[in-house]
């Protein structure tokens, strides 16, 4: 249905793709994997008309094509679901579903009644029940992702490209997504599936292509390809080395101080948080567990002053944080790495240098004049320390891979020398190599005496990376796991509110 032959793509200072061959076949789910910066996103953008190839050929349904816009690709039957939902937040759910193909009446006017009815039917078919008249922005990220999926299915596409589609979904929604993918496959649709989650790849994909440094290093059936072999292909390292390093880069050897540096007491936000309390000591990593919607992100945002509270107090080193705002929290030594790095983190139009220096500018300026030499030293230090892959400090951060964008955000907050670092899904949507680097950095920061709050939907990461895990459910603290009690079974029981030795009926 869709293929590229000998495709190359060069950006200033970076060869993103080099002589790439790739084929998406009808009735097949084809995994596209590789580290961040391997060229996956660039290949997707070449396939869908965002970037023209500098060399090579794109073929659709057996015929050479040259899409110059994403609209041309969509009109040819190629639909894309991006990791960051690319819909219009101020428009209603129904308008988003039918954007560009609104049903019209005899006079050419939009038939809103029919549009709302058909939008409701399309969402209900995926198990989604929302008021389609509501603005999209009022839905959670997971629900927005399902709306994007419904739109892709509704346009009757022959090729569907999915870029990390489950990164914001709950297990129930992931199950629904996989059912839809199987339905598409049975209809003869070609599905290109990008994900860093191994379990998903082996559950839903038929074939796999591995990219590394812009080149194809493997392509073929996924069945029979050992997971360790797949990871070693992605990283370019020996299987024995991958096997010896384990599943995460966490060492679990933190040495926390006796007294907490952060105390949050009775944090309450109407309909979101109910008297949430937690503390973190210097050198300690405290995990925040729970399902999506349990209040994890809301807790971090409340501590960081980004979510106004109705009650409760936050103190750092025994000194209350007054003002309840992000600037007040930053001055007190609290930094938050948000879950949605695109919407709330990076400024894509600014350079790597400018993004790293943003939060530290007040400390790097005097009488309104910025010390450029100090900025250059700080940026150079963090680019080297975090191994940020960039053509240079003046490259736009929007041109970097997801993993490197995440590192730029980490560098920004480390540059202000925080006492408490709140990490909301720090490894979401980044490859196994970048993930291991971020995990190792979290360990290193804790060893240096930083107090870390870790929010992660990856159970393995949460368990192996945390000294304690505070479990939330429906905006309340339901359990706290410490020491040997920090296990997957104990965490799942706390989340499900199942007593030890009991059954989840």
UniProtKB/TrEMBL annotation:
Pfam families, per database record: ABC_tran (PF00005)
SUPFAM superfamilies, alphabetized: P-loop containing nucleoside triphosphate hydrolases
A GO CC annotation given for this chain: plasma membrane
Primary subcellular site in the record, as a coarse category: membrane
GO molecular function, one term: ATP binding
Subcellular location: Cell membrane
Membrane topology of the entry: Peripheral membrane protein
Transmembrane segments: none
Alphabetic keyword roster: ATP-binding, Cell membrane, Membrane, Nucleotide-binding, Repeat, Translocase, Transport
Boundaries of every ABC transporter domain copy: 2-238, 242-499
Domain of life: Bacteria
Name of protein: Sugar ABC transporter ATP-binding protein
């Amino acid at each position: 249905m869709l293929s590229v032959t000998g495709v190359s793509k060069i950006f200033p200072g970076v060869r993103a793709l080099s002589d790439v061959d790739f084929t998406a076949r009808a009735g097949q789910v084809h995994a596209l994997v590789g580290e961040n910066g391997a060229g996956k996103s660039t290949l997707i953008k070449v396939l869908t008309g965002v970037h023209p190839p500098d060399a090579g050929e794109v073929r659709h349904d057996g015929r050479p094509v040259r899409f110059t816009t994403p609209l041309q690709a969509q009109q040819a039957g190629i639909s894309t679901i991006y990791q960051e939902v690319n819909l219009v937040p101020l428009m209603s759910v129904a308008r988003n579903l039918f954007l560009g193909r609104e049903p019209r009446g005899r006079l050419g006017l939009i038939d809103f009644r029919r549009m709302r009815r058909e939008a409701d039917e399309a969402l209900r078919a995926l198990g989604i029940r929302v008021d389609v008249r509501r603005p999209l922005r009022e839905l959670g990220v997971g629900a927005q992702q399902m709306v994007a999926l419904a739109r892709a299915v509704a346009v009757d596409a022959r090729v569907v490209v999915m870029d990390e589609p489950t990164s914001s979904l709950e297990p129930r929604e992931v199950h629904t997504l996989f059912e839809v993918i199987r339905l598409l496959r049975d209809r003869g649709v070609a599905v290109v599936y990008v994900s860093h989650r191994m379990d998903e790849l082996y559950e839903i994909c038929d074939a796999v292509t591995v990219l590394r440094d812009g080149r194809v290093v493997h392509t073929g059936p996924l069945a029979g390809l050992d997971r360790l072999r797949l990871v070693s292909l992605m990283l370019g390292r020996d299987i024995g080395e991958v096997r010896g390093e384990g599943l995460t880069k966490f060492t679990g050897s933190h040495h926390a101080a006796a007294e907490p540096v952060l105390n949050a007491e009775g944090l309450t936000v109407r309909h979101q948080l109910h008297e949430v309390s937690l503390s973190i000591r210097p050198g300690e990593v405290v995990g925040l567990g729970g399902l999506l919607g349990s209040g994890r992100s809301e807790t971090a945002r409340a501590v960081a002053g980004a979510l106004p509270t109705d009650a409760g107090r936050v103190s750092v080193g025994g000194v209350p944080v007054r003002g309840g705002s992000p600037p007040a929290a930053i001055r007190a030594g609290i930094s938050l790495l948000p879950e949605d790095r695109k919407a709330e983190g990076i400024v894509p139009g600014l350079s790597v240098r400018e993004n790293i220096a943003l939060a530290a500018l007040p400390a790097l300026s005097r009488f309104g004049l910025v010390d450029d030499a100090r900025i250059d030293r700080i940026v150079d230090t963090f680019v080297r320390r975090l191994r940020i892959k960039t053509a240079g400090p003046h490259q736009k951060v929007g041109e970097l891979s997801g993993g490197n964008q995440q590192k730029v955000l980490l560098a920004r907050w480390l540059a202000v020398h925080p006492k408490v670092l709140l990490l909301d899904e720090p490894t979401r949507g980044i490859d196994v190599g970048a993930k291991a680097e971020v995990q190792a950095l979290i360990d290193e920061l804790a060893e240096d005496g930083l107090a870390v709050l870790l929010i992660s939907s990856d159970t393995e990461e949460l368990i192996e990376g945390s000294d304690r895990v505070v479990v939330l459910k429906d905006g309340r603290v339901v359990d706290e796991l410490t020491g040997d009690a920090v296990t997957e079974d104990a965490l799942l029981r706390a989340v499900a509110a199942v007593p030890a030795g009991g059954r989840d009926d």
